[in-house]
Each structure stands twice: as structure tokens, then as C-alpha cells.
Design a protein that fits this description.
Blueprint (H helix, E strand, L loop, with lengths): L5 E3 L2 E3 L3 E3 L15 H9 L5 E8 L16 H16 L4 E6 L16 E2 L8 E4 L2 E4 L4 E2 L2 H20 L4 E6 L4 H6 L14 H4 L1 H14 L4 E5 L13 H12 L6 E5 L12 H7 L4 E4 L4 H9 L5 E4 L1 H5 L3 H7 L26
Parallel strand pairs: 3-4, 3-14, 4-5, 5-10, 6-9, 10-11, 11-12, 12-13, 13-14
Antiparallel strand pairs: 1-2, 7-8
Length: 351
């Protein structure tokens, strides 16, 4: 089943291997996509769909110091290298568009204040150019400020298409801005964007509406992580949140829903995949810790339509070919995930 084609919005995928969005911090302090990044994605072009690392839709919203952006003409030109390289290899690629919200920090962003749904900080510390510092208490966004960020997502999507991407994935996961509205452990608002699940989902739905209007819903995917406690996140009812979102997302006619099934830290446990499959009528992509064997089984049983692979795809640029051949997989070197340069990035051997 992993090697069967799949219609995903406007695209026909030749197989159901998806490259999960993986932050690799190779864009430098200028946040500029470059030749090395183009090589990395092109190496993995045999997958059905590649999804890029999280990419900023607004300036001064960096959380990782050296991640890319899609808000400037230079970034659009830089990303054209990646899309051209992937398409030359016959691949398909979506840009993951993203706002870090309270996961950003003034020390990384020229003193610009950090924003979120509410004025509560992430626990612990963040790496900045000056070293580790505590996370900043964010400014709670006003209604007008929310509207500006919705517009930035729409412009980011337009810029992505101009850069040659086949579509975009809206990042609604892992404790970044959209997720900071969705989950009640972070969202303490009492206005139209807080309280009930309908209100907490309002910002996400406004982003999806604007992005779909900008580039067409059949070129828009969404990633969610209802269970992940990364970035000090939790929700009082993750299954209920998943059920509500999965049902409502049918109205948007998205290319796909990309669901992270677990919690990085194992704090929150529940089955969100089953309820998403029951409610959502479109293409469902599963993610987090799937082996090729489990992915094959999940697709065969109709639980998922495709699977996004992370760590295994980092170390195995030819992952689909290796799985097909029953070949041994390279082991990823996690110490090079966020370091600059080619080591641990473009130097993993193919079969």
C-alpha cells in the first residue's frame, strides 16, 4: 500500500511516503534558503510528498535562530533553488508556513516582543545567540493584530507558490502560534478567540480560509498535534478537540490533514487517530514513530492514507527505495540535527 499512488488535493502522489517537516537550521542568521538546502530536499525527492521545515511568514518571529522565511523577495528567490531541484528529480514539495508565537524570543529577533494567544510563557529556557535564557512572557494579541497575522499567512502562501512550491502546509502543531490558540492549557482568552473550542479554533479557521482563498484549498494541508506537550502545551480534552477539528475541517476541502499521533514526552496519552479518521473525510496523513511495516498495515486497514517519516528520512534520503528493497536503514546522528553545514544533513549514503 505504501507504494500505491494517492490523490492529494491537486497532486497525484506516486507513493505514500511523506517527508515530515523537520527543522534543520541550515538557513543562517539571514533566514535565507540556500544551495545546501536545495540539495537536501532534492536527495529525498523520490518520496510521494516532501514537506519543508517550518518557515516564517513574518519577520522577527524566529524561534530557532537559523530557520528559513518566506516573507522577502530574497527568500522567494532562495526557495526557487529547492523547488527547481526537487521538480527536476520528479518530486513534489509543500512549504510549511509557520508563526512561532511565544516560542520566539526578543533576543533572537532584534528585541521585538513575543506574541501569543495569552500572556503566559513557555516553561524553561531557549537557546539564543547570547546563550540560554528563560522564555519571554508574550504579549496577548489584539483582534487587529490577529488579523495582520492571518494576512501574513495568506501572503506567505502566495509567496510559496511564486517560489515554485506545489502547495503549503499550515503549521497548527507543537505549541506554536496556531496551537497556542487551539489548546486550553495555553489559551486563557475571554474574547471571541478563547473559551469554547469553537472560539479557540477561530484563528486556525481564519488562517485556513485566507490561505485557501490565496492559493486554492486543494494546495493546502494542515498539521495538528493534539497530544504533544512540547513547548509547555496541553489540552483538557485532546480527543474532543481532535473530533471537533476533524469534523469542521471537512468544510475547507483541504489537500490533507497531517496528524501527529503522540506526545514527544509521553505525558498525554490517547487515541486521536481513530476519531480523526471517523470524522475527517479527506486524506489523513499519520506521523510519529511509524516503521515502514506499521505504516503499511495502517494504510491497508484504512486507518491512514499516507505516513510522514521523520528520523528515518533524515538518515535515508532514498527511504522508499530502501524499504522496497528490504535494505538496512542508516541510523540518524541526532547531534547534527541543528548544526550548520553538510555533516549529518546531505552526507548520508544512498544504497
Amino acid at each position: 500500500m505504501l507504494f500505491n499512488p494517492l490523490q492529494v488535493g491537486a497532486l497525484t502522489l506516486p507513493n505514500r511516503f511523506v517527508l515530515a517537516p523537520l527543522t534543520r537550521t541550515r538557513a543562517g542568521m539571514e533566514h535565507l534558503p540556500n544551495d545546501l538546502m536545495a540539495e537536501y530536499y532534492a536527495q529525498r525527492a523520490s518520496g510521494g510528498l516532501l514537506i519543508t521545515e517550518c518557515t516564517m511568514v513574518q519577520e522577527d518571529t524566529s524561534a530557532f535562530v537559523a530557520e528559513p522565511g518566506i516573507y522577502s523577495a530574497a527568500q522567494i528567490e532562495g526557495w526557487k533553488k529547492t523547488t527547481a531541484a526537487v521538480h527536476a528529480k520528479g518530486g513534489r514539495i509543500f512549504l510549511q508556513i509557520w508563526h512561532a508565537g511565544r516560542a520566539a524570543h526578543p533576543d533572537i529577533n532584534g528585541g521585538q516582543r513575543t506574541v501569543s494567544s495569552s500572556a503566559t510563557a513557555i516553561e524553561g529556557e531557549i537557546h539564543t545567540p547570547a546563550g540560554k535564557v528563560p522564555h519571554a512572557v508574550p504579549h496577548a494579541l489584539s483582534t487587529d493584530e490577529i488579523a495582520n497575522i492571518v494576512a501574513a499567512f495568506a501572503q506567505g502562501a502566495k509567496n510559496a507558490i511564486e517560489a515554485g512550491f506545489d502547495g503549503v502546509e499550515v503549521h497548527g502543531a507543537n505549541g506554536y502560534l496556531i496551537d497556542q490558540f487551539l489548546r486550553d492549557g495555553c489559551n486563557q482568552r475571554t474574547d471571541a478567540y478563547g473559551g469554547t473550542v469553537e472560539n479557540r479554533a477561530r484563528f486556525l479557521f481564519e488562517v485556513l480560509t485566507a490561505v485557501s482563498a490565496a492559493i486554492g484549498a486543494d494546495r493546502v494541508g494542515l498539521r495538528l498535534s493534539p497530544l504533544n506537550s512540547y513547548n509547555s502545551m496541553k489540552d483538557s480534552d485532546p480527543v474532543g478537540l481532535t473530533a471537533y477539528l476533524a469534523e469542521k475541517l471537512n468544510d475547507f476541502k483541504l489537500a490533507y490533514l497531517h496528524l501527529m499521533r503522540a506526545d514527544f514526552f509521553g505525558v498525554q496519552k490517547a487515541d486521536v487517530v481513530t476519531v480523526a479518521r471517523e470524522r475527517f473525510k479527506g486524506v489523513l496523513i499519520g506521523n510519529m514513530g511509524y516503521s515502514a511495516e506499521e505504516a503499511e498495515q495502517a494504510i491497508k486497514e484504512g486507518k491512514l492514507d499516507a505516513v510522514a517519516f521523520g528520523n528515518s528520512y533524515i538518515a535515508n534520503p532514498d527511504l522508499p527505495e530502501r524499504v522496497k528493497a528490504g535494505a538496512e536503514l542508516n541510523v540518524p546522528d541526532s547531534s547534527t540535527y541543528y548544526t550548520p553545514g553538510a555533516k549529518g544533513y546531505t552526507d548520508y549514503p544512498t544504497m
